[in-house]
Write a structure and sequence with these properties.
By secondary structure, this protein is of the alpha/beta class. 42% of the residues lie in helices and 20% in strands. The protein has 13 helices and 15 strands. The strands form four sheets. A five-stranded mixed beta sheet has the order 5-4-3-6-10. A five-stranded mixed beta sheet has the order 13-12-11-14-15, sandwiched between helices. A three-stranded antiparallel beta sheet has the order 7-8-9, covered by helices on one side. Strand 14, helix 11 and strand 15 form a beta-alpha-beta unit. 45% of the residues are buried.
Amino acid sequence: MRPTSSRESVPTMTPAASLVFTTLLSHGPLTRAEVARRTSLSAAAVTKAVRPLMELGYLVEGVDEDAPPAVGRPANLVWVDGGRALFIGLKVTGDEIIAVLADLCCRIRMSRHVHLTGREPEVVLPAITALVQELLTEAVGFGVRVRGLGIAISGDVDRAEGVVRYSPFLEWRDVPLAELTAAATGLPVTVDNDVRALTVAEHWFGAGVGLSHFALVTVGAGIGCGLVVHGRVVSGAHGVAGEIGHLSLDPLGPPCHCGNRGCVEAIAADPAIVRAVRAATGKQVTDTADALDLAHREDPGARAVYARAGEAIGRAIGSLVNLLGPERVIISGEGLAAYDLFAEGIRDAFAASAFGTAARCDVVIRPLPFEEWARGAAATAIQSFMGSDTYEEQSMTRHSRGP
């Protein structure tokens, strides 16, 4: 496999250039004046940031041919040339790997699913390598290089070190995934928590575009949360932030894999719901499909379990809104298949626990396929390539220190 870690034609990004690039990625095409307004940079700073990116072909400038006729010279627009580079994004679950090949605008050009025969690193890593090799071969037809690989995985992930500290669904501890994968593929590798990666994609392209403060809550195999504060995805001082799945709502509640009791995840995640439905009904419930079927057939025990799950999620969102005051909370994840069963519980518990005007927070439901999680992984690779992740860390450090 040919290494692609050369820095040829890769820009040296300043914080201003990273900010301009991500602004154009989410909102472009824009005039330079509009970029300056959106970023609060001076016109001179925008021009200085744009110039090297245009010279390398990552940004393009031209006249908007579709603009209505106007007096005077029409203003040029600047936009990201999505075809200038490609990136691979992988979402690793306990059962499969979902992969996408995306362009510089994070548009999915192709996707792949591969079933995993085991969860051990010695099984997963060769599967990752083979899948990346397949996509690198496919990428040859696009005529541009793959510039980075992003991997999204559940659990406690140290992005700066590229280490999976703990992934409960894979049962991994302290796996140096970025180092191992980079050695096997020859690509620069970014490894991040899967919910945080999806939050990056939602911030750039989804329901969080244009918002300075929002949260993404995911329900399904686990209960996750990604946070955007002051326009930046928050990783936390130790790589852990927004873990509302491990808010302990009931000290006497069911045990959680984290070691506590009564966590939101121990009540409302899919495995917890399956166990609770089995106990409540005394029936052979093997998976979420069985649990959903019972609840939809009006089994009172099963419906009570889903109602309790909705209440737990709603209380967690209420606590989140009380603490951070986001403009919007986006709810997503494969667990939305049961949303009709716990929607009322979420709404009622949120309304009861949100304090004062915090209850005005916009709560939206956004079902997303697993390809979007892989797209989020590709977005983290684009972040690393364009230096946007470094800019975000610097920005959050400035916010934490004050002016």
